[in-house]
Amino acid sequence: MRLKSSADRDALVAYCVAVVNNRRAMYDLEDNGITIPGSLPGTVVTNPAWRVFRDSSNVIRAFAQEFGLTPSGRTRIKVEGGDDDSRNPYAQTG
User: Fold this and answer.
1) 52: closest CA among 94, 82, 22?
2) Could you give the CA distance from residue 21 to residue 57 in angstroms, rounded to a whole number?
3) How many CB atoms lie within 10 A of CB 38?
4) Which residue, among 47, 48, 57, 45, has the nearest Cα to 21 in the 3D structure?
5) Which of 13, 32, 38, 57 has the CA that lies 20 to 30 A from 47?
6) 39-63 burial by CB neighbour count: b if 16+ within 10 A, else e?
7) Measured between alpha carbons, how far is 50 from 32 in angstroms, rounded to an integer?
8) Which stretches of 7-93 are assigned E, i.e. beta strand?
9) What pLDDT tens digit does each residue of the chain (94 aa) get?
10) Where are the domains of the chain?
11) Which pLDDT value is given to residue 85?
């Protein structure tokens, strides 16, 4: 990805943390559902994991766009040397 600064590294770390939080929230939602019993008898509230899932999904989408991990994000990437795949270790994988 040719990350050039610690700020780039920190953004990649933030992306990875968002992915971990998103998956943990997803597992909680699978186990407990989007709604859970409220503190008052007979009431139902939104599972707090839903907000974590939603918010982390937005963070993932934003960073994925910045890192060129989405179709529209890839259209903005300018690579030195054009379409030369000689330096791409994944070019011949499929």
Assistant:
1) 22
2) 9
3) 11
4) 57
5) 13
6) eeeeeeeebebbebbeebbebbeeb
7) 11
8) 35-37, 44-46
9) 565 677 788 888 999 999 999 999 999 999 999 999 999 999 999 999 999 999 999 999 999 988 888 887 777 766 665 555 666 666 666 5
10) 6-72
11) 62
The pair of three-digit structure tokens given for residue 22, joined into one six-digit string: 């998103």
Report which residue type is found at 7.
Answer: A
Written as six digits, the tokens of 70 are 């989405």
Q: Are 31 and 53 in contact (CB under 8 A)?
A: no
**In this structure, are residues 68 and 77 in contact, taking their beta carbons and an 8 Å threshold?**
yes
Cα separation, 59 vs 49, in Å, equals: 15
Nearest to 9 by CA among 19, 64, 68, 1: 1
Q: Do 37 and 43 form a contact (C-beta atoms < 8 A)?
A: yes
H/E element, 1: none
